[in-house]
Amino acid sequence: MQAIVVGAGVIGSSVAYRLAQAGAEVTIVEERRPGGGTSSVTYAWVNACEKLTSEAYFRLNFAGRQAHEDMLAEFPGADWYHRPGVLQWQDAEAEAGGRDGTDPLAKLQQLIAWGYPAEVLSLDDVRKLEPEINPDAIGNVPVIHYPRDGWLDPVPYSGALITAALERHGATFVEGRVDRLVLAGERCTGIELADGRTIEADVVVNCAGRWLNDIVQASEHRIPLAPTLGIVAYTPPVGAPLRSALRTPLVNMRPDGGGRFLLRSNELDRLLASDEGALPSHPQAQELMRRAIKTVPALRNVDVEAVRIATRPIPKDSYSAVGPVPGLSGYYAVVSHSGVTLGAFLGEVVADELVHGRERNELAEFRPSRFFN
Ligand SMILES: Cc1cc2nc3c(=O)[nH]c(=O)nc-3n(C[C@H](O)[C@H](O)[C@H](O)COP(=O)(O)OP(=O)(O)OC[C@H]3O[C@@H](n4cnc5c(N)ncnc54)[C@H](O)[C@@H]3O)c2cc1C
């Protein structure tokens, strides 16, 4: 089977690698560098504990964690998946079931019932684990510890998978921008690049993330997206005051390699009006740094060094969209938020469906067809 994979982000690289490994003749088309899209501007927490709105979605993301462990085992020496644990706490309002409507202890019970490694820590335990965290930033609320959680480095991951698809499994990499799908009636037969080249295949797998619909001519084949902006601030290298990742009402922060810290916040993301002005002076970046200092006072003399703003590829109802698009055979879309968590698993199941023809139940609730009724 000949397959074209459009986009080599964390999802496209996973899909291309697994397809090639399963025996497909794969051509990957990427206009930037592998991992250079949204996958290069992300918190990259590989988790299912933030995905409790639907059990099927939780299970999909839980499988995503396992798939990353399996993937790592196939790449001896790879160090793109870090799992020192994640600490999460809520403010008093949220604890009372207020602001975001979640009760952290009810959430914990649900997670434990579903087999997710999670526990509550006392302030003393937190101090022993992460002595630099300011206890006042936590207050009198439960701290949930996910001892096996962590984050991925999506760019090295994507690069390594693309290299392996090429070197181990004979895939081809084409640098260039896909302009459009090539159609013959109700069948997609390949793609046309912006420079006029065409490539034919039995199936085109669209992993172009936030740009998914740009190559799809007909509106009836476009998956509705509800993208959101996210801003990430990076510090310069500092003398490692923290090992774990933090998910807190003020700021989410974690080490980002070489002593750097990566900072972000959903609340501050919601204030973004555009993706312009991604500079250290950006007001949200400055606020992220202030919040990080409140949380870890050892950062008090540290300034923001770099800022990035990205657009999340999110299907309109917030859940993944993976599968054929009605009315267009030979075309298969894979678009999702939480793509870092899900990438490795989506690679597995997409390859299973397309190469072995085994329809995967895990995807039943996440088909693009739900948007086309
Ligand atoms: C601030 C922020 C925080 C996040 N936090 C998390 C988190 O903690 N955990 C988590 O799991 N997820 C998180 N996400 C979401 C996650 O980063 C994305 O879901 C994921 O990176 C999407 O990967 P992708 O491969 O679909 O897209 P991308 O990485 O954008 O890859 C798409 C690729 O397609 C290429 N492309 C596009 N159009 C064309 C074309 N016409 N021709 C050729 N190539 C093309 C692009 O160049 C790009 O490389 C976060 C996102 C943001 C922005």
TrEMBL record:
Please provide, in alphabetical order, the Gene Ontology terms of the cellular component aspect for this entry.
Answer: cytoplasm
Q: Where is the FAD dependent oxidoreductase domain?
A: 3-352
- Which SUPFAM superfamilies does this entry report, sorted A to Z? FAD/NAD(P)-binding domain (SSF51905)
What Pfam families is this protein classified in?
Answer: DAO
Key words, A-Z? Oxidoreductase
InterPro entries documented for this protein: FAD-dep_OxRdtase, FAD/NAD-bd_sf
Name assigned to this protein: Glycine/D-amino acid oxidase
